[in-house]
Amino acid sequence: MKKSKGLKTESFYKIFIYVALIALATSIIIPVVWILFASIKENSEFYGNPWAIPDGFHYQNFVEAFVEARMGDYLFNSIIVTGLAIVFLLVIALPASYVLSRFRFFGSKFLNSFVKAGLFINVSYIAVPIFLMLLDWDSLMQTMFDGGSFLNNRVMLALIYASTALPFTIFLLSSYFETLPSDFEEAASIDGAGYFKTMFSVMLPMAKPSIIIVILFNFLLFWNEYILALTLMPGENKTLPVGLLNLMAAERAAANYGPMYAGMVIVMLPTLILYIIVQKRLTQGMTVGGLKG
Amino acid sequence: MYLSKTKARNIFIGVCITPAILLFVIFMVIPTIDVFRMSLYSWGGFSNQKQFVGFDNFKFLWNDMDFIQSFQNSILLIVIVALVTLVVAVFFAAILTKERIIGGNFFRVIFYIPNILSIVVIAGIFSAVYAPSNGLLNSVFAVLNLDFWQQKWLGNQQIVIYSVAGALVWQAIGYYMVMYMSSMASIPASYYEAASLEGASPFRQFFDITLPLIWNNIRTTLTFYIISTVNLSFLLVTAMTGGGPDGSTEVFLSYMYEQAYGNSTYGYGMAIGVVVFLFSFALAAIISHITKRDVLEY
After folding, report:
1. What DSSP string runs through A49-61?
2. Mean per-residue pLDDT for A209-225?
3. Can you tell me the ipTM of this complex?
4. For the segment B166-178, what is each residue's pLDDT rounded down to a tens digit?
5. Hey, is the C-beta of B285 within 8 angstroms of any chain A C-beta?
6. Separation CA A247–CA A74 (nearest Å)
7. How many CA atoms lie within 13 A of B115 on its CB side?
8. Of B24, B91, B269, the CB nearest to A163
9. Contact check, Cβ <8 Å, A124/B34
10. pLDDT in tens, A104-150
């Protein structure tokens, strides 16, 4: 009697757990799949049953989004900005993290905490001051030379992305370098390698796992970022999220839904594909870093 | 040319850290100082008329009803989002680490997906979910014959802030779940075995073993809840509701952005930025103080 009662609560507990798990999973899968379906629906289909499977593959939505809403150009901009920003970040952050974590010199302690304090600086606060700073630089250039375009500049945006990612990236890479034994450097030094050679051919290759995590995290961060892009690129060179923001406003007003969902798919598909390929690394790496708002 | 060892070392150090420090100072430290400095000025941002006004911007804040509304909204969001996300994330983390779940890995992978999406896409998804006539949520209620639960999720001033909170929770659960899972996984299994032998129920085990041992992790994440909710609610509200209807979803930073940028009262906008910054810092300190417990070693 007692045993069967125990079994009963046990199975109730199991059922409850599965219901909860499936409920949360559905709440994530359905909207995402729904967006994918909606992106290939014809506009008239949006007025019928929202649960209906698409009639066919209306790729025109994507054509319209790519060409008329210029999402193709924005995709190109996003690829350029994200790629450049990751290159800048690695070139700048790797040597800095290596030196900050493994060398003691005058002021090294201060510099370490100085950069770590940057973890508390939120991009949303400083977007507007950065905009005004670039505006100042632009007008200064205009008086000295003819042009000057720090605003609407993809390279500049990439550089700023890289700068804002520095504190987290240096924090993550330093904590990796700190764990390495100093034998490697000593061995390299006995073999006659200088500091630069030791760093490039011995230490940096060993950091490969952390470098991959840095690339993954910052790819997601840069690809999805929109407040800096919105503020610093008021002209033509928009990135995907900003382009999508405009597209959503325009198509909603025009009740032309297909291209709007196509735009959403264009923004989210690259990150979804990347995530499917590297999901294990990403979630494991996250716990290594243990941070990121 | 032969360099002495110390000189070579110094050159190496200088070459490696100078670019990083320079960029960090130019694009993060100086703009941050600018926020504080400009909050003491009355300035439109573009004109040359910049006037030092001391703390006048801050005094003005006290009587700005729109700011007070955005303040209330932000606090409401921080509290709801932090509490709901915390409870749900801990619950699912505990299930996925402790129980033998068929497809456990599948659930873990799915739950993390919202965290990789752009907040603009999330705004788009939730506009579709909350759409009044053909929205996903309302049509689910229609199918279940729960028509009386249907709402104008983004049109009703009483409800819209909770709709925004829902999107933020949806976005955050997976991230914090993975965080808690990793700290739960490091609890030795022998603790649970011993408790089982003594006849402790899963609930008892959760409250007496799991919760105390991950408490430190929860404390740290609470700070992140605050920082990220302040930030994400701004991005989401800007993309989804634009602060409306009638200011009912305006949050700190969206109001700051509007004042600095839309309204061209830059100094005032930066004063709001300073208040938000200090407020989140103070809140984090207070929470970290009241949640302080003796750290359990294992």
Report:
1. -TTPPPSS--THH
2. 92
3. 0.88
4. 999 999 999 999 9
5. no
6. 11
7. 23
8. B24
9. no
10. 998 899 999 999 888 888 888 899 899 999 988 988 887 776 666 88
Encode burial over A27-66: b for 16+ CB neighbours within 10 A, e otherwise. Answer: bbeebbebbbbbbbbebebbeeebeeeeeeebeebbebbb
CATH of the domain at B189: 1.10.3720.10
Residue B106 lies in a domain: yes
3 state SS of B41: strand
Query: Could you give the CA distance from residue A196 to residue A184 in angstroms, rounded to a whole number?
Result: 14
Q: Are A293 and A121 in contact (CB under 8 A)?
A: no
For residues A287 and B97, what is the distance between their CA atoms, to the nearest angstrom? 15
Number of H helices, E strands in chain A: 13, 0
Euclidean distance between the first and the last CA atom of chain B, given in angstroms as a whole number: 57
Residue of B100, B110, B120 to mutate for A, most A C-beta atoms under 10 A: B120
Q: Considering the domain boundaries, does residue B39 fall inside one?
A: no
* Averaged pLDDT, A193-221: 89
Nearest CB neighbour to A241, from listed B8, B99, B118: B118
Give yes or no for B9 touching A (CB within 8 A). Answer: yes
Which range marks the domain in which residue B71 is found?
51-290
Alpha-carbon distance of A246 to A69, in angstroms, equals: 9
Please say whether the beta carbons of B238 and B251 come within 8 A: no
In the predicted structure, residue B105 carries a pLDDT above the cut 80: yes
Residue B17 covered by a domain:
no
Q: Is the pLDDT of residue B46 over 70?
A: no
Is the model more confident about A48 or about A174?
A174
Task: Give the right CATH number for A59-292 from 1.10.3720.10, 3.40.50.300, 2.40.50.1020, 1.20.1280.170.
Answer: 1.10.3720.10
- CA angle, corner A202, sides to A200 and A205, nearest 5? 75
Report the number of distinct structural domains present in chain B.
1
Average pLDDT score, chain A: 87
To the nearest whole Å, the CA of A28 is away from the closest chain B CA by 7
For B139, the closest chain A residue by CA position comes to A50
Residues in B closer than 8 angstroms to A25, CB to CB, are 106-107, 110-111
Question: Dihedral of the CA atoms A74, A37, B119, B71 (nearest 10)?
Answer: 130
Task: Give residues 123 to 142 of B whose Cβ lies within 8 Å of A.
Answer: 123-129, 134-136, 139
**Residue B113 to residue A275, Cβ atoms within 8 A:** yes
The answer to whether B108 faces chain A, any CB pair under 8 Å, is yes
Q: Is residue B114 part of a domain?
A: yes
Nearest chain B residue to A169, by CA:
B20
A96 with B17: Cβ contact below 8 A: yes
Q: Say if residue B277 is exposed, middle or buried (CB neighbours under 10 Å; 0-12, 13-18, 19+).
A: buried
